[in-house]
Amino acid sequence: MPVPIEWVKNAGGLSPSVRDYPEGTSETFKKGALVIYDVSEDGVVEVTRAAGVPSDQNFLGIALKDATGTAGKRIPVLLPRSGDIFKASLASAEATDVAPVGDDRGKLFGLIKRSTGTPAGSYVVDNSVTTWVKVIDINPEDVSKRGLDLLAALATGFTAGEDSVLFEFQEAVLDNAGSQA
Fold first, then answer.
1. What does pTM read for this prediction?
2. Rg (Cα) of the chain, in Å, rounded?
3. What phi, psi does 70 have (nearest 5°)?
4. pLDDT tens profile 10-26
């Protein structure tokens, strides 16, 4: 099953930065959605997308629970900072899982909202766009679940939709305070 975006740790040892925001009107976003504060709705809404890819690098954070559909309900939002490390599966387009490879380390990729599969509507790393995140490594936890070490897994290959990558947001999408642009 594909791994949606999930906070793993902060390189400096900090806890995740989470704030509650009011939900916008009639929202349907799922946990893990990229959200932005919409002044006209006086609450958080999911970012706009074209073919699953966020239309803009500006975002507030990552929703930590599903929208309720009720304006004003409080939604916890993870606010990515410099040094935060996340994990997610790799995809190419909205519905195609891709197995990570060793050469993915250090590459710049994007994010995409899945159009199909489980969990439906989740965001994963998109290897066809280079605007949002930098892959740090292949997630060693996924490899160890199969009883392998990273070197053995590099030799035998990884599994699309099951093995995830570790990544950090590019500084360009974070503002000078280490929060979102």
1. 0.85
2. 16
3. -115, 115
4. 999 999 999 999 999 99
